[in-house]
Amino acid sequence: MSEVLPVSLPPTPGQTVGPFFGYALPYARGNELVEPGTPGAVRLHGTVRDGAGNPVPDALLEIWQADPAGRVPARSGSLLRDGTFAGWGRAETDREGGFWFRTLLPGATEAGRAPFFHVTLFARGLQDRLFTRAYLPASDGAGRAALDADPLLASLDPRRRATLVTEREPDGSLRWDVRLQGEGETVFLTYDAGPHAGRDGVGA
Predict the structure, then answer these.
(1) Strands annotated E in the chain
(2) Closest C-alpha to 204, from 139, 134, 155, 162
(3) Of 190, 197, 121, 183, nearest to 155 (Cα)?
(4) Using CA atoms, how far apart are residues 201 and 155, in angstroms rounded to an integer?
(5) Please, are residues 132 and 187 in contact by the beta-carbon 8 Å criterion?
(6) pLDDT at site 10
(7) Hey, which end of the chain has fewer CB within 10 Å, N or C?
(8) Residue closest to 35 by CA, chosen among 92, 93, 104
(9) pTM of the entire structure?
(10) How far is CA 9 from CA 3, 5, 6, in A?
(11) How far is CA 137 from CA 57, 116, 204, in A?
């Protein structure tokens, strides 16, 4: 028969979500949502850094997106990489914290709304995965108006807002860097039963 302890024990720290990605989650061509040479294909790439500005070599990112027409794919084929565009990809960072995806530009899911990639990030020391967005840069007046009208972006000051918008590179690729904390920290979102809210208490 067990005895009841006279004092309560303090809780122990929770298990973090990594690092274990090098062998547990990546798979061949997980970051290639479309084949090389696919019309409209674009490279989304960047670097994940910690609060000190050092690259994170064992982070894992997932993107979820609409297709160029703004339709959210609802089909299988993501793991097989059989030519089916399923709107989902997974990429691990390299030793310099770099990552890349080959995909299609997402379209706006509603008229007048800004298109973006949903992003999930796993990294060492995190108690849970992080959620954020990577918006397409404005290419014309309509694009700028859509970014300005986005509820999440409109609730942020310009410096915070800039962490969620990709930059068009001279070669046509999209660059989007992630900072986990500190100066230039990326805006991260929390999801609950109510409206989406960011770490700063902003609505999504």
Answers:
(1) 41-49, 60-64, 88-92, 98-104, 116-122, 130-135, 167-168, 174-175, 178-179, 189-190, 197-198
(2) 155
(3) 197
(4) 10
(5) yes
(6) 75
(7) N
(8) 104
(9) 0.83
(10) 14, 9, 10
(11) 27, 9, 18
Residue 122 phi, psi (nearest 5): -115, 140
Query: Position of tokens 């929770």?
Result: 14
* Domain at 21-191: CATH architecture: Sandwich (2.60)
**8 contacts: CB under 8 Å, gap ≥ 6:** none
Cα-Cα-Cα-Cα torsion 194, 71, 172, 142, nearest 10 degrees, comes to: -70
Upstream peptide bond of 106 is cis (omega within 30 degrees of 0): no
Residue whose token pair is 């840069």: 137
Round to whole Å and give the CA distance between 83 and 98: 25
Give the N- to C-terminal CA distance of the chain in Å, as an integer: 53
Pair 58, 18: CB distance under 8 Å: yes
E strand residue ranges, 11-140? 41-49, 60-64, 88-92, 98-104, 116-122, 130-135
What are the pLDDT digits (tens) for 146-175?
999 999 999 999 999 999 999 999 999 999
**What residue spans of 77-181 are helical by DSSP H?**
141-149, 151-154, 158-162
